[in-house]
Amino acid sequence: METKYSSDDIAGAISLQTYTYVYASMATLWTYDYVRLLQEEWTFLLQSRWTKVKGLYVATRFVPFLLLTVHLYTNFIPNENPDKCKILITVCSVLSQISGTCSECFFVLRTYALWKHNRFVLIVILTFSSVAIVAISSTAYVYTITASYETSTIPGITGCCNSDNLFVPFLFLFIFELGLVCLTLTHAIQSWWMASGHLYTVLVKNNIFYYTCALFLSGANVLASRYLHYQYHAIFQEYAYSSLSVHPY
C-alpha cells in the first residue's frame, strides 16, 4: 500500500513535535524558576538603586520571557505560511542573540571582578568580546536570512522548520567561553594559595560551574548543528539561550 507521505515528511514531523515538546518543558522550567524567585526579585528591583548592571540584569532575566512567548506561539499556533515562519524565527533569533549577549556580559563581569579589576585583563576581555559579538551576530544573521523555512505537510503538526545551520556562530561562542574559562583557571591557580576569603572561593567555584555549563551547551550545539538533521539541531540552541539566563548572576 502506497503511503501518502514520504519518509522525510514523517521524520521532519517527528523532529518538529520533539522540538515543540522540549521547548514547552523549557518554558515550564523557566516559568517555575521565575515564580519561585518572584518575591526576591521584586524586592531587589524595588529597593536597589538603578545602575547599568541592574539594567543588564533586568534584560538578562526578562528578555527570555519574550523569546519563550514568541517561540511558543510559533510552535503551537497553526500556520501554513513559510513567510510568516521566517518572520517569527527571525524575531526569535534576534531575541536569542540579545539574551545570549546579556548572559555573556555577566560572565565577563564576573571574570573581571575575579581579576580584581585588572585593567590589562579588562582590555583583553573587551577586545575579545567585541570580536566575538561581531563574528557571532554577523554569521548568525547570514544563516538566518539565507535559510529556507517551511511547515509540516502532515495535518495537525504545528510549528516551523528551518534549514539554518549555526555551526560557525556556536563555534565562535565556544572559543569565547573557553577563553573566559582559561582566564578564570589561570587566576585561580595563581591566587589560590593566598586567598582566604569565603567570597573569593564562592566566586571561583560559581564561575567554573557557569563556564562549564556554557561550554557544554556550546559544544553540544556545535556537534548538533554539524551532525543532527531536521529540527533536532535547534533543540540545544534554544536550551542554551534559555538556561544561561536562569541564573547569570
How would you characterize this protein structure?
The chain is built from eight helices and two strands. The chain starts with 6 loop residues before the first helix and ends in a 6-residue tail after the last helix. A hairpin with an 8-residue loop joins β1 and β2 (160-162). α6 runs antiparallel to α7 (198-227). It is mainly α and 249 residues long. The chain has a two-stranded antiparallel sheet.
In short:
With 249 residues, the protein is an all-alpha fold. The chain contains eight helices and two strands.
Q: Count of DSSP helices? A: 8
Strand percent estimate:
under 5%
Mean pLDDT: 81
Which range best describes the helical content: under 10%, 10-25%, 25-40%, 40-55%, 55-70% or over 70%? over 70%
Q: Strands across the major sheet, in which order? A: 1-2
Structural class: mainly alpha
**Uncertain residue segments:** none
Distance between the termini: 58 Å
Name the features:
two-stranded antiparallel sheet; globular; mainly alpha; 8 helices; 249 residues
